[in-house]
Amino acid sequence: MIKTVAIQGVRGSFHHIVSQQFFDESVDVIECLTFDGVVDSLITKSCDAAIMALENSIAGSIIPNYALIDKFGLHIVGEHYLDIQHNLLALPNQIVKDIKEVYSHPMALLQCKEFFKLHPHIKLVEDKDTAEVAQRIQEKQLSGVGAIASVKAAEIFELDILARSIQTINHNETRFVIVKRVNSEVAENDINKASIKFEADHKRGSLAAILNVMSDCKLNLTKIQSLPIVETPWKYAFFVDITFEVYNDFKKAKSLMDIMALNFKVLGEYKKGKK
Length: 275
Prior knowledge:
By secondary structure, the chain is α/β, with parallel strands linked by helices. It contains nine helices and 15 strands. The strands form three sheets. Strands 1, 2, 3, 4, 5 and 11 form a six-stranded mixed sheet that branches. The protein has a five-stranded mixed sheet with strand order 8-7-9-6-10. The chain has a four-stranded antiparallel sheet with strand order 13-14-12-15, sandwiched between helices. Helix 8 runs antiparallel to helix 9. The two termini are 25 Å apart.
């Protein structure tokens, strides 16, 4: 039973919205300003689960979060796709021309860069969280300062929406994962997706051989992400997401990859989210 969930950000953030959609509004949320704080809350048992963004359809992978899940031996037990609509928020009775600075998370700024090219008078400043900026604007009554955040944040912190859906590409989704300290309790019959990590030998065809195992076992590779191994320059670990119809197909592939790949590891077995 999930009673408490750690999120990166505050109420009104996209992580908060995911917590309400994946669980329900009764779940208690622990607000953390960094993903390191989210992981710390989980490993110190301050919460039952945590929510972490892993990739965005515009900006790509959030690579440090892959590393955090791997480093601390966390287990992905579910995923959730959220339509991300960014809005320019500010105190009431202002227009876009009144805004001199906009503070937001680097990913949000990246996703909205075309909008701000049209408003070169606005200085863009990287910050820790979208909704936390909205909260700060209200608490400190910061005129001339804007936030990029959700409609939910505008409602919670009583800010005006000066411009809606300012992201460069209208269809903008982020994939979030739900992580726990222990493996999933999902029944095998319901598991149709897995996240794995492995390293490959510096030999011709070593990676291809592992990918062939996935194909031969009827697995569909939906994502592959390389990450440098810090201790060994020019060697890489591969983080891979795969889907399948029958769990036994994955079970067979898992036993083969465990033999063929170096440091093979299952990061999670779960039910794929709806896009």
